[in-house]
């Protein structure tokens, strides 16, 4: 399935719009990643644990959105947008959401 941030797909014709589809993932950041991130925050550098967690959550959200588009009989999802938020009293969770328009192609 084609998933794109653009509103059209080069060389393809959109024949119908099947609806807006979403993917949502809320992922907890574990204690060990928090310690590592705190050390990097103090000394500087990138937090590989958080980056890995975001990568996994983003892929899961895209897969969920793709599955929902597939269930609508779509061939592609256009106009995809992604958003990231922290949740929880101590910001210990990350939410990744994506949305787009499921379409059928000629």
From TrEMBL:
SUPFAM superfamilies noted in UniProt: YbjQ-like (SSF117782)
Family matches, as InterPro entries: UPF0145_dom_sf, UPF0145_YbjQ-like
Family: Belongs to the UPF0145 family.
Protein name (Swiss-Prot/TrEMBL): UPF0145 protein EJN90_01830
